[in-house]
Amino acid sequence: MSDSGSDEDLTPEDRGSTESVRKGCDPLVSTQRSKLQQRRAKLNQQINRELLLRSGAENLYRASTNQKVKETVALELSFVNSNLQLLKEELEELNSSMNIYQTESETLNVPMIPLGLKETKEIDMTVPLQDFIAEHYGEDASLYLNEIQDFMELRQAMRTPSRNEAGQELLMEYFNQLYFLDQRFFSPHRSLGVHFHWYDSLTGVPSVQRALAFEKGSVLFNIGALYTQIGARQDRSTLSGIEDAIDAFQRAAGAFLYLQENFSHAPSLDMSGSALSMLVRLMVAQVQECVCEKVLLNIQDIHLNVLLQAAQEAARVSDVYSLVLQAMSVPLLKDYVPFSWISMVQVKTHHFRALAHYYTAVALCDCSGVGDEDEDGAEIKALVQIHTRQPEKLNLQDPEDKRRLGKAHLRKAIIRHEEALRLHGVCKMLRKMDILQEVLSDAHTRSLEKYSDIDQEDDFCEVAEAPEVQSHTQQKPDIKAPDFSVVRVTDIFHRLVTLTFTHTLEQTIDV
């Protein structure tokens, strides 16, 4: 979900509210998120109303035997369905904006898919905590008003974390404080009566639970989501920017995987096992894409091994995005995942497969042995091994056969480029991403120009069939689980009776 807007939209009062805030908190985001959530809440209410109307009309249509009544109801149903479609499209556009998270670098890179943060309602735990302190600990609760206020201010601050490492530390600090809070105040024999309200990150649908595990899980989800935003905003035109993006996406994958393994009975679809599994796959794919970009960044000269490595890395990216698409297509998620996400994954699947064929073609057509038999043999071996099967009826020691095979790879590249452009064109959200359009068009044009360069008018030979490119990577993604010990905190309520447990670094959030 989109959770930000331009600072120009903020009022002077909003700007003034940012003074003297906790490190890692960005209150400027708060106003835009609240406006966004109000719009989404209104849309969800309208959709629910239309669904009720449709259900009632369908029941009346089935129950009625009067033909005139049936015709009237059928007409009403068509209006309701039309309204529903418009409302869902508006909500989809609201939930699937990717542009605001992308890097401001002018370098042409395929945009990444970030995830918006889950939002939560402000809550006041003062009275429940005071009552518990008085009843359970037998102390004067008024003596702990400062601690309660500190905790409430920490919770308020973590609702709007800045998109950087300080924001991550703020979320982790609150998560660690929840561990202490759980041990001190959330007894299995007595409920505090506090309700935690969190909204689904993709639909804005609210969920409410009294279990602190829901609060923990939602904060951990936001830790992962914030890493996706940090990864998407990196300048991937530099090696350091790519490495930072890789690290961020690996940490995002680790947070989602940890949540999947430790959180059960998810109250919202974004925290369900299938959704988290899909998000882990998506983050791994984006890591693999960054690894491929790192290889492409190093292509300075036309060198056979570098070109073939680039081809296999691109094929690997295409393969992992195909797995993401499968994960997005399971029954529970196919109507939940934004259409723009699905379209972007499809575009990347075809785009990187096209790049795999393109770099293979360049290796075949532009790289030639220097005359040494050993080097020639190594070159032929490398060209054979990159394919899923040995090219039939072709002798890769013959320059003409190599050219024909390169031409066949370019034909496949062009077909894939054209499919990527077609898929880009049918998605309204992707059409708004000028950089994506430019990247896809430039790659398509480059393949066409290369094909034109090697095409010969008197080429009457049988058309060669290019095998698929074997996928391979030099750097497999390393999913990094959250390290709760990185941000050390002191129990806010340490003045209460000493806890009778040992604070371990491994925390469970299972309910």
Overview of the structural elements:
It comes from Danio rerio. This is Rhophilin-1 isoform X9. With 511 residues, the protein is mainly α. The protein has three domains: 7-95, Methane Monooxygenase Hydroxylase, Chain G, domain 1, CATH 1.20.58; 101-298 and 481-511, Serine Threonine Protein Phosphatase 5, Tetratricopeptide repeat (Alpha Horseshoe), CATH 1.25.40; 304-478, no CATH class. The chain has 15 helices and two strands. It has helices at residues 12-16, 28-63, 67-95, 126-137, 145-158, 165-185, 212-232, 239-262, 273-297, 304-328, 339-366, 373-385, 399-425, 428-431, 434-454, and strands at residues 196-199, 206-209. A two-stranded antiparallel ribbon has the order 1-2. A hairpin with a 6-residue loop joins β1 and β2 (206-209). α8 runs antiparallel to α9 (273-297). The two termini are 26 Å apart.
Outline the secondary-structure elements:
Blueprint: H1 12-16, H2 28-63, H3 67-95, H4 126-137, H5 145-158, H6 165-185, E1 196-199, E2 206-209, H7 212-232, H8 239-262, H9 273-297, H10 304-328, H11 339-366, H12 373-385, H13 399-425, H14 428-431, H15 434-454
Antiparallel strand pairs: 1-2
Helix pairs in contact: 2-3, 5-6, 6-7, 7-8, 8-9, 9-10, 10-11, 11-13, 11-15, 13-15
Protein name: Rhophilin-1 isoform X9
Organism: Danio rerio
